[in-house]
């Protein structure tokens, strides 16, 4: 199946699921992850109309997307991988959404860079719903404090929460948990991926 066919199939699945959940299909945004994909497959996705792309690493994204931004002005890049504070400047310059805030130090660095660059990017807090020590993300017990710090003290535009469930667990349980946390904080946007 081609990338265009896969995208069409996914969009139909999303439309059906949204209708079953009594949501508008347009309220669901498909973020295609370009991790480890060759340029030919990325071009196929862009040709098929996919404009929302998730990237894991800042340096790879810079190489892959700087020139393409000129060709695709409607491109929307999400940073979905862990971010080191020393890469905050480059991340703020390149990405349109930062989904991986998981600690105060990073929230401070991003806020400083957004002020310096005159950008106010939507941000998500990355929640480690499985409390896996080897994974990035704030543990649920620390989520409210990080949200208060990032949105209050740092002034970041926290619009949602993100999680990547443990590979061995049913994802629906973690997605429901993330929704519960978002509801408690009054956040509408959720980003739920699979590894």
What does this structure look like?
- With 195 residues, this protein is of the alpha/beta class.
- The protein contains 7 helices and 7 strands.
- It has helices spanning 3-20, 39-47, 58-71, 88-94, 104-117, 140-153, 171-185; strands at 32-33, 52-55, 76-79, 97-101, 122-126, 157-163, 189-192.
- The protein has a 7-stranded parallel sheet.
- β5 (122-126), α6 (140-153) and β6 form a beta-alpha-beta unit.
- The two termini are 22 Å apart.
Query: Helical residue percent?
Result: 40-55%
Strand order within the widest beta sheet:
1-2-3-4-5-6-7
Largest sheet: 7 strands, parallel
* Termini Cα gap: 22 Å
Per DSSP, the total helix count is 7
Instruction: State Rg.
Output: 17 Å
How does the overall form come out from the CA principal axes?
globular
| Beta-strand fraction estimate | 15-25%
The chain-level structural class is alpha/beta
Q: What is the N-to-C order of secondary-structure elements (H for helix, E for strand)?
A: HEHEHEHEHEHEHE
**Which spans have pLDDT < 50 for at least 5 consecutive residues?**
none
The overall pLDDT, averaged over residues, is 93
Number of distinct beta strands: 7
């Amino acid at each position: 199946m081609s990338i265009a066919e896969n995208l069409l199939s996914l969009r139909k699945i999303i439309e059906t699921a949204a209708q079953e959940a009594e949501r508008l299909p347009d309220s669901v945004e498909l973020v295609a992850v370009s991790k480890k994909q060759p340029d030919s497959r990325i071009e196929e996705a862009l040709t098929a109309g996919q404009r929302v792309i998730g990237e894991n690493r800042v340096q790879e994204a810079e190489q892959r997307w700087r020139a393409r931004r000129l060709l695709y002005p409607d491109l929307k890049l999400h940073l979905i991988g862990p971010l080191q504070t020393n890469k905050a400047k480059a991340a703020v310059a390149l990405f349109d959404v930062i989904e991986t805030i998981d600690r105060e130090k990073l929230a401070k660095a991003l806020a400083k860079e957004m002020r310096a660059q005159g950008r106010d990017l939507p941000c998500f807090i990355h929640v480690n719903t499985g409390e896996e020590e080897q994974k990035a993300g704030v543990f649920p017990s620390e989520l409210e404090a990080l949200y208060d710090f990032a949105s209050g003290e740092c002034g970041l535009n926290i619009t949602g929460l993100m999680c990547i469930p443990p590979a061995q667990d049913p994802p629906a349980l973690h997605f429901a948990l993330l929704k519960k946390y978002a509801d408690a904080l009054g956040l509408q946007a959720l980003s739920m991926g699979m590894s």
